[in-house]
Design brief:
alpha+beta; Alpha-Beta Plaits; five-stranded antiparallel β-sheet; four-stranded antiparallel β-sheet; 9 strands; extended
Length: 381
Amino acid sequence: MDDLKKLEEELDLVNRNSFKGKKTINQANDLTEIDAGNGKKTIFKVCKELYIIATKAIDLAKTSLIPLQEQDSQTLENIIKRQLNEVLPNLLKEAISVAAISPVESLQVNPPVEKPLPGRHTITLAKSPVNEDDTETNITTHEWTEVYRKDVKNSLKGVRVKDEWVNNGSTGLSFPTENDMKEAERALTEKCKSVKVNSKSVEPKKLDPKLTISDIHLDFDTKEKILEELLEKNTGIKDANVKVVYYDIKEKFAVIQLPIEAREVIRKSGDYIYLGLQRHRVYDRLHVVQCYHCQQFGHMAKSQYCKLKDAPPTCFYCAKAHASKDCEHRINKKTDWIKCSNCCNSKSTTEKNAARTHKAADNLCPFFIREKERVMSRTAG
């Protein structure tokens, strides 16, 4: 078949123009054999080209109306094997199973397995009532430090405690697993009579994915109009629970949130959606939240979760105790005093040494990268 010959030609082209230091891609079957001169962009480009060819082969197998001859079926099997089973196995983790491609219709992609999120297991503490007429009351920061913390700590010897907090009128402990929480609850109830114990275990759900739509025409002046047009022009997501969570009319882009099933429908259409008379490419959006008071990640400024909300602000640029907008180094455009507050307080020597190479929200900061990975792990798909 002509289509099979085209696929083989495309694969040979990728083979001949793959990595530096290797004549063909087949000679770099092991990740450790790839020459150091090949950067991440080169490796990504090769993986992308191989994925495109694999997609074409799958579509050919599924949509072929004429039964493939034995020779053609063998050719298709070889194309898939050469790309995904024999080429760069350490890079292409989700390979297509080709153990038995006869008939060709059995060729299919195994969906990725979603890892469950760790649950949040907490115990909140209050002062035990002295008699029946009293009611339990909150434990203040001073009381926790001077009176209760020592008793609680002695009661929980041998129990794994993930974190402790005294914030917004609440005092408590968090645990890595539900069993640790139950063990702590028993120990505190038996040994620490000065506190009232309330336990809570929450199994979090994964967040629905978000997509960015760019270059939106000015005719769409509200989020409601965008949503109406999306559901009308894209029948594959018509019945899905789609939300337009953000729209910047000045920058001409919007952010939509939708179930993972609707996201997969858009992915199969090449990551394109129709809006008005235009076709728009969509991109996954992973929003990293950073507090511009303490410069830490996972919460916003003035949030109850900011542990340093009562302390002076931390500078985004030089990590000193002043507001970022008042930084004289930013005003004078000096770069010699750039310093990442998160890295300079890190326990890692390597991160501490690299603190003066970037600001607190640089996308190459290890803290930013870890937070982005955390957001990815919490997002379905």
